[in-house]
């Protein structure tokens, strides 16, 4: 392997969205009054948007106060690692769109009822893939 | 399984740190002037602290501007899922402590030189584990 091959390879948006859709969990970061919070959520990719559900609780309150959010997904095997970061704007899905959202195959792992659908509309989608230099020891 | 068993089970700090140490990647969220950023990093647990390395670049700049950070780790199998969130204060490790840090077994996957060690000292460590209600279909 040459030194060049171990450098990060920037992924295009289609590949980022494909990788995002391949994972059952995405991490959601929000900031309220300078305080960051970070949650794992089950999600589904709908075109360029990322949808998830929530209870009428803390996550939703934070999203309402500060609608800019960041989502992250990653994965690895012995040879390489990748990560995708989506910056976007969160909004509660209008009631008229909920029926269609419910056909998208979102699998929530939690027993907590999460009737509120949230859509994240990306403003920036970035991703990278790189060869692991440790040879998969970790 | 009873309804009660599917409710989230809060993990104590020792279990949170054990789970955090079992993973090769943690997600780091920082906020600068209200804008959140989110990065996956290779980390190592040192007592209650979490250490990682970085290049003298964007992550480090952000940490310097706003030293409060959040770390997240998660995992799942067909039966259950868990997540751990650490809120803490980041600081650059003093030069005198770097030699010891280098014995802790951190495996960085990236070819990018990352000579700067950062320590996150937790102010709050929380975690939960719950049975997956989807039966591991996702």
Descriptive notes:
The structure is a homodimer of 138-residue chains. Chain A has 138 residues and is an alpha+beta fold. Chain A has a single domain (10-129), classed as Electron Transport, Fmn-binding Protein, Chain A (Pnp Oxidase, Chain A, Roll). Helix content of chain A is 18%, strand content 48%. Chain A has helices at 13-22, 58-65, 95-101; strands at 9-10, 25-32, 35-46, 49-54, 68-76, 80-92, 116-131. A 6-stranded antiparallel beta barrel of chain A has the order 2-3-4-7-6-5. In chain A, a hairpin with a 2-residue loop joins strand 2 and strand 3 (35-46). The two termini of chain A are 20 Å apart. The mean pLDDT of chain A is 89. At the A-B interface, strand 2, strand 3, strand 5 and strand 6 of A face strand 2, strand 3, strand 5 and strand 6 of B.
Tell me the layout of helices and strands.
The structure is a homodimer of 138-residue chains.
Chain A: E1 9-10, H1 13-22, E2 25-32, E3 35-46, E4 49-54, H2 58-65, E5 68-76, E6 80-92, H3 95-101, E7 116-131
Antiparallel strand pairs in A: 1-7, 2-3, 2-5, 3-4, 4-7, 5-6, 6-7
Point out poorly predicted stretches of chain A.
none
Largest sheet of chain A: 6 strands, antiparallel, barrel
Gap from first CA to last CA of chain A: 20 Å
The CATH topology of chain A is: Pnp Oxidase, Chain A
Order of helices and strands of chain A: EHEEEHEEHE
Fraction of helical residues of chain A:
10-25%
Quantity of strands of chain A, as a count: 7
Strand content of chain A: over 45%
The quaternary state of the protein chains shown equals: homodimer
Note the overall shape of chain A: globular
The Cα radius of gyration of chain A reads 16 Å
Please give the CATH architecture of chain A.
Roll
Number of domains of chain A: 1
Pair with the biggest interface = A-B, 42 and 42 residues
Number of helices of chain A: 3
Structural class label of chain A = alpha+beta
Q: Roughly what is the average pLDDT of chain A, rounded to an integer? A: 89
CATH H-level superfamily of chain A: Electron Transport, Fmn-binding Protein, Chain A
CATH class of chain A: Mainly Beta
Protein name (chains A, B): Nitroimidazol reductase NimA-like FMN-containing flavoprotein (Pyridoxamine 5'-phosphate oxidase superfamily)
Pfam family, one (chains A, B): Pyridox_ox_2
């Amino acid at each position: 392997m040459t030194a060049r091959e171990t450098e990060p390879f920037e992924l295009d948006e289609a590949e980022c969205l494909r990788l995002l859709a391949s994972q059952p969990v995405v991490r959601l970061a929000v900031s309220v009054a300078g305080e960051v919070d970070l949650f794992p959520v089950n999600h589904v990719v709908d075109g360029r948007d990322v949808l998830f559900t929530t209870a009428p609780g803390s996550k939703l309150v934070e999203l309402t106060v500060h609608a800019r959010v960041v989502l992250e997904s990653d994965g690895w095997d012995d040879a390489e690692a990748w990560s995708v970061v989506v910056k976007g704007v969160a909004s509660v899905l209008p009631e008229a769109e909920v029926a269609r959202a419910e056909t998208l195959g979102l699998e929530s792992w939690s027993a907590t009822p999460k009737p509120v659908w949230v859509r994240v509309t990306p403003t920036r989608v970035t991703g990278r893939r790189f060869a692991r230099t440790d040879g998969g020891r970790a």
